[in-house]
Amino acid sequence: MGRPSSQAFTRWDLIICLAAIGMLAIWLPMLARSKSRTSRFNYCYSNLQQIGLGFRMWSNDHGDHFPWRVSTNEGGTLKYAESREVFRHFVAASNELNSPRILACPADPKRSRTSAFDFLSNENLGYFVEINTNGSQVFLSGDRFLSTNKSVRSGLMTISKVKSLQWVPGAHVKSGGIVFSDGSVTWTANGQLGTIFTNLPIRIAIP
Question: I want to staple 79 with a disulfide (CB 3.0 to 4.6 A). Which of 72, 86, 110, 121 is the partner?
Answer without folding.
Answer: 72
